[in-house]
Amino acid sequence: MKISHKYVPVIILLGGVILFQLISTLSGIEYILTQMTMAGYYAMVIIGLTMLMGYTGQISLGHAGFFAIGGYTSAVLTTQNLAALKGTGLADFIMNSGLSVSMTDTYGQELVYLSPWISLTLAILITIIVAFLIGIPILKLKGHYLAMATLGFGTIIYRIVLGAGIFGEADGISEVPAFPVLGGLSISGDSALRIENYYIAWFVLGVGVLLLINLVNSRAGRALRSIHGSEDAASAMGVDTARYKLAIFVLSAVYAAVGGVLLTHFNGGIGPSEASIMKSVRYVAIVAVGGMANLWGALIMGVLLNFLSLRGYFGSYDDAFFGVILIVIMLFFPDGLLTRDNFKGLKQKIQRLIAREKRTAE
Amino acid sequence: MSFEQLLQYLLSGVTMGSIYAIVAIGYNIIYNTTGIINFAQGEFVMLGGMTAISFNFFMPLPLAIFLSVIIVSFVGAFIDIVFIRNLKKPSVLNMIIVTIGLSTVIREVALHIWDEKVRSLPYFTGDESSSINIFGAYISPQVLWVLGVSAVIVIGLTFFFKYTLPGRSMRACSANITAAQLCGVNAKNMVTLSFMLSAAIGAIAGTVVSPITMTQYDGGTSLAIKGFAVAILGGLGNSTGAVVGGIVIGVLEALSISILPSAYKDAIAIALLLLILFIKPSGLFGSSEVSALKEY
């Protein structure tokens, strides 16, 4: 079987994911898989944002808003107990048509809730509509104006989830039920399902990356790269830049929303801090470290930095750390850390050092 | 709504609006000389308030304010000399990202220095219970301080940019940086000066408003967004526009409290910002000829 060159990193990723699980299980630190799962869902936002920032050169300081739209939509829809609403038209329809999941809660009460598959679909639909409506006017803007407009969008979402009763105000929404996937598998924080959830998250992330890789290497991808190179030149060559930018904006919003939905079901809840501006700034920082138009760089950095942050390695300097990253990257590595040039430079430096060592030895 | 109530809302709107206008003018000064929007502008306001509060523990109020303004303006100079000047690729996107990074770091440093507590300076004259009756509406004397200081800043800046050599050099840089350099203007120093000036103005705003709105480590962000909304509404770079825009947004916000829950107060200014950006990004006072040549 001939394997296309572009899939080699995917196979390496698969190997790495399995290796990580085996090592952590064998060395008795399996609990870190929980943070790896969460980091995987956050990385969904990052790879989507990389498409937007790297390939179309548009900044978004509002992606935490889309993450929150996804998470909160699913959380609100699945925490309504339909058993209590039995007899009303809509609830009966949902229950009879198999769109619901029923179980008994810890107190033996009957609990029927909307299938998370439906809420996921609705969350994606809502995100597409919002991103589309806001994207049309926003993407006409450039530079500062675009940055501030997306920041404004993010702030409005944050204020809404913080102020509206239906979203639980400052407490957020808790007791979000598990997301049944296939067979007995479900996305939930149940520690018995830790390894399964780790693989589910990475499967989702893997599929997400695969789709984007194919997109980048398609006709649309070439158009996107031409926009990245020079928007005016691309436009002159007949690339409909406005349409592509809007499409990528919506696509990246959907990635963020899917990450939000799945993480909310995994954590069993969501709070307003997920919609905060600092979260958006953090996503931008990670994309910048990964090297803007570099999917793999973004993926690796997205997982690594989110994992370290979730494990609490940055302590109370968590937000400050991401601020410092932004500054350092822009000052010293405006093309990101994981670029070929950096590796080449490193290799040359090492070779030079070795040569010097040899000379002094002689 | 009775006349007195309306007047009360209007007055509080104008007070907050003049603070937004000062923040917007801070944006304009840097924007005019460099073309950068400094996302850390709100942090200057917070820093001004915070340092003055700390100094006020062991020195009289006027001296504390004076020192805090000096210190914050040096923070502004530091930001330009260390970070903005050394950017490898000074594209708009990169500059935005750097100033966002800086604002985050300043906020977090402030959190570690001053913790999360809400603080405030004492009232400049009188105290929280003293009030002045204007046509049935009651205002605190601090409101007069805010309005007075804002007016002095606007008039002072107009004078500075029109009649002094550094002010005129800064305007020359904004008009045509190459031509200005050929005439012997040190453009780099002018950029530093613009950062100092806008930091100092932000700090002054932070001190006068502190007795009314209180100061907290993360208070800069919402001021920054609203200040930007005001700057856009008035036309980026236009200081007279900023004053009008500030009053418009301040009053709208104050009136919105009587209709919507105050939790959404911030959302009003931002929704307005989005609306302006979508409809007329050159602002109320931006000329359409200039905006046709500009990219938004």
pLDDT < 50 runs, ≥5 residues of chain B: none
Give the low-pLDDT segments of chain A: none
How are the strands ordered across the major sheet of chain A? 1-2
* Tally of helical runs of chain A: 14
Give the biggest beta sheet of chain B.
Answer: 2 strands, antiparallel
Radius of gyration of chain A: 22 Å
Strand order of the largest sheet of chain B: 1-2
User: What's the CATH C level of chain B?
Assistant: Mainly Alpha
Overall tally of structural domains of chain B: 1
Question: Helix proportion of residues of chain B, in percent?
Answer: over 70%
Secondary structural class of chain B: mainly alpha
Radius of gyration of chain B: 19 Å
| CATH architecture classification name of chain B | Orthogonal Bundle
The proportion of strand residues of chain B reads: under 5%
User: Which of globular, elongated, flat, extended, rod-shaped describes the shape of chain B?
Assistant: globular
Number of strands of chain B: 2
Treating each run of at least 4 consecutive H or I residues as one helix, how many helices of chain B?
12
* Largest interface pair: A-B, 44 and 43 residues
Helix and strand sequence of chain B: HHHHEEHHHHHHHH
Mean pLDDT of chain A: 83
| Assembly state | heterodimer
Give the arrangement of secondary structure elements:
The complex is a heterodimer of chains A (362) and B (296).
Chain A lengths: L7 H19 L5 H25 L6 H16 L10 H8 L3 E5 L5 E5 L1 H23 L4 H21 L9 E2 L4 E2 L5 E2 L6 H23 L2 H11 L1 H6 L4 H27 L1 E2 L6 H14 L4 H16 L7 H15 L7 H22 L1
Antiparallel strand pairs in A: 1-2, 3-6, 4-5
Helix pairs in contact in A: 1-7, 2-7, 2-10, 2-11, 2-12, 3-5, 3-6, 3-10, 5-10, 11-12, 11-13
Chain B lengths: L2 H32 L6 H15 L5 H24 L7 H23 L17 E3 L2 E3 L1 H23 L1 H11 L1 H6 L4 H27 L6 H15 L4 H19 L7 H15 L8 H6 L3
Antiparallel strand pairs in B: 1-2
Helix pairs in contact in B: 1-5, 1-6, 1-8, 1-9, 1-10, 2-3, 2-4, 2-8, 2-9, 3-8, 5-6, 5-8, 6-8, 9-10, 9-11, 10-11
